[in-house]
Design a protein that fits this description.
alpha/beta, two-stranded antiparallel sheet, 11 helices, about 30% helix, about 15% strand, globular
């Protein structure tokens, strides 16, 4: 039988009603002082579940007090934050949708005015290019992490993952993309360390490796997604010199830990990598037999063909879920889908 984007999908004992994913999108509507989420946020996610999303991946959630990159970012490192997320997971689960918490640390892509006077942190003391989101101040030179601090952050990922499961999430996604902290360790331009966390590609991937090792102690392996990208939010011209080498090295780590979900992130799905003849999703599909999530400005009516031809297993939509909370219903009925307009700042949750 021909596969369909509307067919159910199983990852071990994780059962999705369909293969349509709501992609993670920063919204910034949490309480800025406490990092807690409210009923508006629960209704926002609940609405997408009510209209049929198979899996929701939340906006990035800070794993500690230095992890957020702008105002209004939710956290999951305190007891009150964890309790606040329960209203979200309860709302989503009443519609049988699954929801993952995306665990996030932005590293150097922040500012002391966002971090309560503390300096942002990174593997090396190199400032990013550009301006802090919403604050519009230039990025500051970050503090280089000591080895003790690195291991403390690794523990923070484990604690945040455990809190996510206690809050009722079905799984978690580790955000290792877009030039944020984990990606700053992977990137040879932002990681100039001379210890076991720097130098060779294997060493630069050690931070991610150890995070996964700790997180899988508290989250089932089939319920952990890893988000990976070549693109960096603060370095638009960055490319991997040897994409296949990096993809194979990442897959080696995922296979070692028996991780089952990878979420390659690109600007436009299908675009060929500059230094390879394949797209990022094609490279993962070539060497990866488990679940791949497609994302990247995908035409909603081409999502089924991506699944039918086994290019990927799940298809994620971001901005279209903002303007079409009922996106899944519209796709099923072949109704008009409203485009996302960048002029619309979406200053409220709906």
């Amino acid at each position: 039988m021909t596969c369909s984007i509307f067919s159910n999908y199983n990852i071990g004992n994780l059962n999705l009603d369909n293969r349509i994913v709501m992609a993670p999108m920063t919204r910034g509507f949490a309480d800025n002082e406490t990092g807690e989420v409210n009923y508006l946020i629960a209704d926002y996610y609940g609405k997408r579940a009510r209209y049929g999303a198979g899996l929701i991946i939340t906006e990035g959630i800070a794993i500690n007090e230095l992890a957020k990159g702008t105002f209004g970012i939710p956290g999951i490192y305190t007891h009150s934050q964890t309790l606040s997320w329960q209203k979200v997971t309860r709302e989503v689960h009443q519609y049988k949708t699954k929801i993952f918490a995306q665990l996030w640390h932005v590293g150097r892509l922040s500012h002391q005015k966002v971090l309560g006077g503390h300096a942002p942190v990174s593997p090396s003391s190199l400032a990013a290019n550009g301006f802090v989101h919403r604050l519009r101040h230039p990025y500051q030179t970050p503090k280089s992490l000591s080895k003790q601090e690195i291991y403390s952050i690794i523990d923070d990922y484990k604690i945040a993952a455990r809190n996510a499961m206690e809050a009722g999430f079905d799984g978690i996604e580790i955000h290792a993309a877009h030039g944020y902290l984990i990606d700053q360790f992977i990137n040879e331009k932002t990681n100039l360390r001379k210890d076991e966390f720097g130098g060779s590609l294997k060493n630069r991937l050690r931070f991610l490796d150890l995070i996964i090792k700790q997180v899988k102690k508290v989250v089932p392996k089939n319920r952990i997604s890893i988000r990976i990208s070549e693109k960096k939010d603060d370095d638009k011209d960055y490319t991997w010199e040897y994409p296949e080498e990096i993809v194979l090295a990442i897959i080696e780590i995922l296979s070692k830990h028996k991780i089952k979900i990878v979420h390659p992130s690109v600007e436009n799905y299908g675009d060929v990598l500059k230094n390879d003849k394949k797209s990022l999703h094609e490279l993962f599909r070539q060497y990866w037999d488990h679940t791949i999530i497609a994302v990247g400005n995908i035409d909603p009516y081409k999502g089924s063909s991506i699944v039918d031809t086994k290019q990927t297993d799940l298809v994620a939509f971001g901005q279209l879920f903002l303007t079409n909370p009922d996106l899944v219903i519209r796709l099923r009925a072949k109704q008009e889908i409203f485009p996302y307009k960048t002029k619309n700042k979406l200053t409220c949750l709906f």
